[in-house]
Recover the amino acids of this structure.
């Protein structure tokens, strides 16, 4: 019983150790990369004057068109029925099968 417990502990410990070392190596690599980028952009001169005025619009928009509502339509003239008709129902509202 003790040997199986030791084996499980060693297996879990080894997996966690590998994960920890991988995370540590990744963190060191990312930190070095970040420091290199900061050093690269710290040499770029900053703008020291007033901000230039914003550019003016180059595109001329056409004038807005006015829209009118569509004319009202008589429902019977168009063929709209007042009550819905169902294909499989009779006058009582129940379907009849064969």
């Amino acid at each position: 019983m003790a040997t199986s417990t030791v084996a499980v502990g060693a297996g879990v410990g080894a997996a966690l150790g590998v994960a920890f070392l991988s995370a540590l190596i990744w963190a060191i690599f990312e930190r070095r990369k970040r420091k290199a980028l900061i050093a690269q952009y710290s040499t770029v001169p900053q703008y020291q004057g007033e901000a230039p005025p914003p550019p003016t619009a180059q595109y001329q928009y056409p004038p807005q068109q006015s829209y009118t509502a569509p004319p009202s339509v008589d429902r019977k003239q168009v063929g709209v029925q007042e009550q819905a008709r169902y294909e499989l129902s009779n006058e009582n509202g129940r379907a009849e099968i064969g």
